[in-house]
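Hey team,

Filing this mostly as a record. A colleague (T.K.) asked me to run one chain through the structure pipeline before their review meeting, and I want the input and output archived in the tracker in case anyone asks later how it was produced. No errors, nothing strange. Just documentation.

Input sequence:
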Amino acid sequence: MFVVNPVSAGGRTGKRWQTIEERMIRNGIDNFSVEYTEGPFHAFDISRRAITSGYQIITAVGGDGTINEVLNGFCAGGGLFSSENALSFISTGTGGDFNRMFLTAEETDQRITSILHAKREKACDIVKAKYLSWKGDPSIRYYINVADLGLGGETCVRINRGGKFLGGFLSFLTAVLVTLAKHHSFEATVNIDQEEIFSGKLTELALANGRFFGGGMMIAPDAEIDDGRLDIILIEDMKKLELLRCLPQVYSGKHRKHPKVKMYKGQKIEIACDQKVWLEMDGETPGTSDLSIELIPGAVRFVF
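Output structure:
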């Protein structure tokens, strides 16, 4: 089952997928079904129905947010993946950050053939997040790539409200620069695996299963999606000029050498903040802090 978000990438995904599907059928590949999303979190419903209907491989076609919705369809009701079901994706969205963990020289048709025949797969970690919805209600959502509080969360809210017409890199970079002008650090206490490792002011806190977020920023250079550990990146309180100087380094992972950047690994993380800090998760903005995170090792059979 291919779950296609036609409005992803400013509507380009819908047009691109039609061309891909027509070409697949001409080439005699017809052992698949397609459903198009019609609004926010519709991919969740489609994914859930596909699983209960017996589809074995559910493939998200769109951006990181579409992948996230399909993932949460697997996890509905607190249940986790069956070994009979597999998650996959065709990245056509604006940021495409999760896809950067799987970059290959394959054309799209080759990638789809590989997915349909499950040629490559691995047991991928996922992350369970407890947070507050925008209405202040306790909520649970799963993610597969990166979640963060602070500068990144504010930037993502601004992008999702204002559009991504400039494409991935420029949309995110422009939004970061605008956010920098208004951003204020927040007080937070961070516990990793029941040990307090930080209490003070933070500019950014990222909880990374994958390496990239924000349209190509390598926030977690050492992250692996199947190592059973989450990479936790703390960026302590920085002045705006200092942040501007550090920003280019994030694209190459060189920010790790900055004295105010701290990196840790763990499985369970608790973050308590002095205010409601906006949360970003796989490119989506579901709510605010406080935040409780748990890595679930090898939870999903991932086909790529």
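Quick notes for T.K.: The helical segments are 12-26, 42-52, 64-74, 108-116, 151-162, 168-182, 240-250. The chain has two domains: 2-125, 126-297.
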